[in-house]
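@channel sequence for tomorrow's demo:
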Amino acid sequence: MKHIVLSSAVCLCLLGCGQSNADVDIDQAGPALRTALEAWKSGKTQADLESQSPSILVNETDWKAGKRLLEFKMDEKGSQYGRQVRWRVQVKIQDKSGETEDQNATYVIDTSPRIVIVRDSFAGF
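structure tokens (generated this afternoon):
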């Protein structure tokens, strides 16, 4: 009897966890990422985005390191991946010495309970 109750609880948890995928708003993810990238390109800081409404938390190591975003081109659509949206972006970045580099970046965006954007440094383009 204990195995049946435990199995039922595990099934309910899995069903409930599967429904959490609906928490991500793919229509909100793209504009949030564009807002973040435009802010970086215009010289704003990640703290500027966090203090705006709605607040956007960004973890982009090149931005934190003081590199400038010169250009970016987002894919037309992102793809839902679990509770997040993954979005591919081509970026042109300039370091402090003036060297530029074209990179293929993948960003992971979460929209619930708040907007969080993280560059996936392990993703292949």
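heads up for whoever presents: The CA atoms of residues 91 and 103 lie 5 Å apart.
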